[in-house]
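Quick one: sequence plus adenosine-5'-triphosphate SMILES, need C-alpha cells.
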Amino acid sequence: MSVEDDPATTERETAEEEAAGDAGAAASATPKLRAENVTKQFGRIVAVDDVTLDVRPGEIFALVGDNGAGKSTLMNVLSGVHAPTEGQLYKDGEPVQFSNPSDARAKGIETVYQDLALMDDLDIATNIFMGSFPKRGVGPLRVIDWNATYERSRAIMREQLGREMDIQTEVEFLSGGQRQLVAIGRALAFDPDVIILDEPTSALSVDATRLVQNTLDRLAEEGITIVIVSHNIESVLEHADRIGVLYQGSLVDIMAPSETDLEELNELMTTGTLETGLLDD
Ligand SMILES: Nc1ncnc2c1ncn2[C@@H]1O[C@H](COP(=O)(O)OP(=O)(O)OP(=O)(O)O)[C@@H](O)[C@H]1O
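Reply:
Sure thing.
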C-alpha cells in the first residue's frame, strides 16, 4: 500500500488541510495590496531594494526593521508619498500608480502619520472631518453640514472605534491614546478599506498602547486591512497576523507571530539573517 493510500495518512492530511483552511483561503485570495519588485532610491541611496510583498484582505500586517531599514520609505510608497523608482503596486489585483496621497486615497488607502497632524484647539468632530466635511445646499451655497459632521463623528467613534467620547471635546485635552484614535477616526471618515499607520503606539503608555491595538484589532475584524510600521516588537507579536522584516532595504522574511519569537525577530532585524543560516543564500 502506498503512503497516499494509507487511511491514517489521509486522515491526518485532511485534518491538517482543515486546520490550514482559513489561513489558506486568506493566502489564496487576491491581495488587498501588492508591491512587486519595488525599489526606491534617493540618489545613490537604495532605501527599498526589490521588495515583493502581498498584504491580505483584513489582516494586520506589521513592517519591522532596524533604524534606516526602509520601513518609512516602503510605507510612503504604499501611501502615495513616493513613487517607486522601479516596480509596480497593485490594489485588489489592479495595477495602480500613485503620484500623491490623494491618488492612494481615491483607491481606498488612508495613512495615519506619526505626527497625527491634529488641530489642538478644535474639537474631536472637526478634526475627524477636517478635509472631508459633509456639506449641504447646492452650488455656491454649499456649506458645512455641522449636524451631519457631529452625527457621523459620533457614529465613527461609537460604532467603528468602539469608544464613547464627547466629540465636542477639544483635542488638546485628550490623552496620547485618544489622540491616536481621533487620527484613526479621521482616516475612517474617508471610508477606506486599507489603513496604513506609522508607529501608532510610539511614545504611548502601556494602557494607551493596548487601547490603540485593540482598536486596530477591531477594525481588522470589520474587514479593514491594516498595515503598521512599528518598533514595538512585543505588541506586533501579540497583534499582527503577519510580520515583514526589512533589513537594509530588503525584505528578509515574512512570518506569522506563531512562527517566531522576540529573540529571533531581533536577530533578523539587526543582522538580516538567523544564526541557523536558514536565510543564508
Ligand atoms: N527623502 C530622503 N532622501 C534621502 N534619503 C532618504 C530619504 N528618506 C529616507 N532616506 C534614506 O533611506 C534609508 C531608509 O530610511 P527609512 O526612513 O525608510 O528607514 P526606517 O526603517 O523607516 O528608519 P527609522 O526606523 O529610523 O525611521 C535611510 O538610509 C535613509 O537615510
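The CA atoms of residues 31 and 106 lie 18 Å apart. Residues 42, 45, 47, 65, 67-73 surround adenosine-5'-triphosphate (CB under 6 Å).
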